[in-house]
Structures are given as C-alpha cells and as structure tokens.
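Backbone-to-sequence.
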C-alpha cells in the first residue's frame, strides 16, 4: 500500500514544528486503525472503506479530519460494503490528528512520559507508542470491543501498550 507518502504529508501538516510528533505521525499507518468509516450523506450516512488497491485508496484517511466509525450502535467494521443509514448520531470516531497532537502537546508529553489515553480506534494510542514506546502507554475505553479491536490492530504493528 502507498500509505507512507500520505502519512508524511499529514505529519508535515499537523506536526510541522514538533519533530518528535511529526516522526510518530509519519510512521503510523492510520488506515490500520480506520479501515472503514461512516461519511455523512445528506441526512444519512454511507460507508467508506480504505481499499486494498493503491489506486482506490481514499485520501480521506490521511487528511486532518475526524472519521466517524460508529453511528448509534452501528460500527463501520461490522457493516456491509453497500450499507447506508438513513439516520443516526455519531458515537465513536477517529479524532482529527491535529486535535490529538494538540491534546498531547498541552499535556506536555515528553519522551520519558508515562501516559494514560482513551482507546477509541487505537490511532492516538499508536501515535503515543510510536513516540514513547509501548511500555510507557496505557490505553482505556468504556467499550471493551473497541479495546479488543484496537489491541489487535496495535499488535499487528508490534505495539503492545497496556490495554484496559
């Protein structure tokens, strides 16, 4: 997959003046954590996916945007490719990367920090693991399913933070 140039472009946009975070964003594949999401379509929602073929890869995954991963109790990971929802309220998402980094910078996270983060899709946890190392990161969420899925996706990248 041709994700690396897109991740580098995203990193240069959201972490231009923060080298350690720029490095973390540039080497963290967001599509691993958000392979499917809901996009607003009029009053409803349509499913979007990060396709396996490079020519079909939606650039949205590597834009500085929030990607809605759950509408009410309809998680994008469980939807069929042609699913659409006529109504619903977002209940989970992958937060826009610039906001994640703003929160981390305001928290004054340094290279030797130990952090407790919310899990969600696992992308923010992956950024922290990339910067600090998995042993310094604990990730927690009220939705056990999200924690399990995020832990699996983190593990595919060799990241094993403490997950609660």
């Amino acid at each position: 997959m041709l994700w690396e140039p897109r991740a580098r472009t995203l990193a240069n946009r959201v972490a231009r003046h923060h080298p350690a975070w720029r490095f973390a964003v540039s080497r963290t594949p967001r599509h691993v954590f958000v392979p499917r999401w809901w996009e607003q379509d009029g009053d409803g929602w349509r499913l979007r996916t990060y396709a396996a073929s490079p020519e079909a890869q939606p650039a949205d995954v590597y834009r500085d945007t929030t990607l809605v991963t759950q509408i009410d109790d309809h998680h994008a990971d469980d939807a069929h490719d042609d699913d659409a929802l006529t109504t619903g309220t977002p209940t989970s998402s992958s937060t826009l990367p610039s906001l994640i980094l703003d929160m981390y910078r305001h928290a004054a996270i340094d290279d030797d920090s130990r952090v407790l983060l919310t899990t969600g899709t696992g992308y923010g946890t992956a950024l922290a693991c990339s910067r600090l190392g998995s042993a310094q990161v604990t990730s927690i969420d009220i939705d056990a399913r999200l924690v399990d899925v995020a832990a699996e996706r983190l593990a595919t990248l060799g990241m094993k933070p403490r997950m609660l």
